[in-house]
Amino acid sequence: MSEDTPDFEEMTRDIAEVPAVEVIVTVAVNLMSAAAVKLGLTEEGDKHKDLDEARKLIHALAGLMDGSATEISSFHAAPLRDGLKSLQLAFREASVVQDAPGQGPGEKYTGPVYG
Predict the structure, then answer these.
(1) Which of 70, 72, 82, 110 could hold 76 in an S-S bridge, CB 3.0 to 4.6 Å?
(2) Cα(9)–Cα(113) distance, integer angstroms
(3) Is the pLDDT of residue 1 over 70?
(4) Distance, CA of 28 to chain centre
């Protein structure tokens, strides 16, 4: 096998050793980070700001949190829910035209988010 070819057998073995909760939390954190970038919340600010993309990422994060709520402990879920709410509030603040309560990104899963 060449150095350029990934070793899928080794990758599969590595993934098999990772608990599901860890995979869910890792995906959630990646969605949060990407949403923060698209909201312009990084040091570079508006350079990567794209509210349409942020909406999609926040909605996906809310769906993941809703779907996995009974599968992960509150130890893991609580900070993720707090982060999700912060992103939803930042989205509302960044939007020129406000979504109606309950219509913001992810609010289908979380219910209306108020500051």
Answers:
(1) 72
(2) 44
(3) no
(4) 4
Quick check: 24 and 68 in contact, CB under 8 A? yes
Could you give the C-alpha distances from 33 to 39, 69, 77, in angstroms and in order?
10, 20, 16
> What does DSSP assign to residue 114?
-
Task: Give the span between the Cα atoms of 106 and 91, in whole angstroms.
Answer: 11
Angle between helices 20-38 and 51-68 (to 10 degrees): 160
Question: How crowded is the C-beta side of 12, counted as CA atoms within 13 Å?
Answer: 3
Between CA 75 and CA 55 the distance in angstroms is 26
Tokens at residue 50, please? 């794209």
Angle, to 10 degrees, between the axis of helix 20-38 and the axis of helix 74-94? 10
Between CA 45 and CA 38 the distance in angstroms is 9
What is the pLDDT, as a whole number, of residue 35?
Answer: 98
Contact indicator for 55, 49 with CB cutoff of 8 Å: no
Q: Which two tokens stand for residue 64?
A: 């993941």
What values do phi and psi take at 16, rounded to 5? -65, -25
